[in-house]
Amino acid sequence: MDEIREAALAYYANLPESMKQQAWSFFRSLDRNGDGKIDVQEYTIALNRMGITWMNNLGFFKELDRDGNGTLDFDEVITLFYLKESGRSYFCDGCRAFLKGVYFTCLTCFNSGPATCSSFDLCCSCYRNNNFNHHHHATSFVDNYVLLQSIWRHKTVSPMVSNSSGVHTHQVPKTMDFVAATSNTVSASSNAAFTLFQLFENLY
């Protein structure tokens, strides 16, 4: 969780003031008694109200509680805010563990896009120990950092277009070249590797 926590704090540090206020409003919405900290009961009630189920358990609360004092301060809630806003909720398809850091994804499934099939993601342990059952070969998998960098290196330069306000922007390409070994294309859709980019686009 440390890697996600550091990412969340880095995002927060660079947010415009309006979004920082939204983060504080989110914190206050959890803090029912106004004591400046979130206990387990407040956490559970708030997540039930928001309809967030996958983080609504004592185990995840303890993951967020970095100092282990039984409550969440603002910096610890920023991690929760980041996970909620970014939609970063990926689980290993081998052991069902929450994917906190580096993970492997099936490139064939990724290339197919969400309209065709779901992504298939694995923690490092399950991928290393072949602890999964999938219809694509193990050599079809790449880790999320390699995938992201490869997309960036090989993406197609897109033409300039005008939006409804007359502002010229780059049109998002429908497909992008990927590593030569795959001879496939990667769909520019809402998938794991694009989550952070989408978050920036939503914030600014």
Protein architecture, described:
With 204 residues, this protein is an alpha+beta fold. It has two domains: 2-86, EF-hand (Recoverin, domain 1), CATH 1.10.238; 103-203, no CATH class. The protein has nine helices and seven strands, in the order αααααβαβαβαββββα. The protein has helices at residues 2-13, 17-30, 40-50, 58-64, 74-86, 107-112, 124-128, 144-154, 195-203, and strands at 103-106, 121-123, 141-143, 160-162, 168-170, 175-177, 185-187. Strands 2-1-3 form a three-stranded antiparallel β-sheet. Strand 4 (160-162) and strand 5 form a beta hairpin. The longest helix is centred in the N-terminal third of the chain and has 14 residues, at 17-30. The protein is elongated. The relative contact order is 0.12.
Q: Main traits of this protein?
A:
204 residues, alpha+beta, Recoverin, domain 1, 2 domains, 9 helices, 11% strand
Give a quick summary of the entry.
43% of the residues lie in helices and 11% in strands.
Mean residue pLDDT: 78
- Walk across the major sheet and give the strand order: 2-1-3
The tally of beta strands, per DSSP, is 7
Helix content: 40-55%
Strand portion, in percent?
A: 5-15%
Unreliable segments (pLDDT under 50, ≥5 consecutive)? Answer: 167-204
